[in-house]
Amino acid sequence: MTMTTALGGTPCTTVGDLPAVGATAPEVRLVGSDMSEVTRTPGRRTVLNIFPSVDTGVCAASVREFNARAAGLADTEVVCVSQDLPFALRRFCGAEGIEAVTVASGFRSTFGDDYGVRLADGGFAGLLARSVVVLDADGTVLHSQLVPEIGQEPDYDAAVAALG
């Protein structure tokens, strides 16, 4: 099955579906900005902020916004995920003073397919569709959103509210 989003008003499909609320989320294996492995921390809640590239305005805004909100989220890690190379993520975070979130790349993993967010077509084919997945401490999905237009920011309030 696939989901549909849009890029500049042109429909784009993903390789599958986001994990459904109530489902156990797939494992997270990514590459951090220091080239180390990034996985979900057992026993902590996780917000996955997923986007095409930190080098676009809306993607950068989502990292900044989740960075600002992360400090107020008890027992919660925020992982910002794209296909960007770790070097680009490190450069962005250094220039922006981003320290409260973890940035990670899916470039060496099946994350995009596992989470159903790899864009199958359109101008951003191969990149990740803008979406948010919120997990409880056991890895159960509390909230998931595929943003209908890639140029639109995710619903930050709904993601944070899902943490209760």
UniProtKB/TrEMBL annotation:
UniProt xrefs under PROSITE patterns: THIOREDOXIN_2, TPX
Gene3D superfamilies linked to this entry: Glutaredoxin
Record's protein name: Thiol peroxidase
Pfam families: Redoxin
GO terms of molecular function: peroxidase activity
Organism name: Nocardioides kribbensis
Top-rank lineage group of the source organism: Bacteria
InterPro entries linked: Redoxin, Thioredoxin-like_sf, Thioredoxin_domain, TPX, Tpx_CS, Tpx_Peroxidase_subfamily
Domain spans labelled Thioredoxin: 19-164
Keyword tags: Antioxidant, Disulfide bond, Oxidoreductase, Peroxidase, Redox-active center
EC class name: oxidoreductase
EC assignment: 1.11.1.-
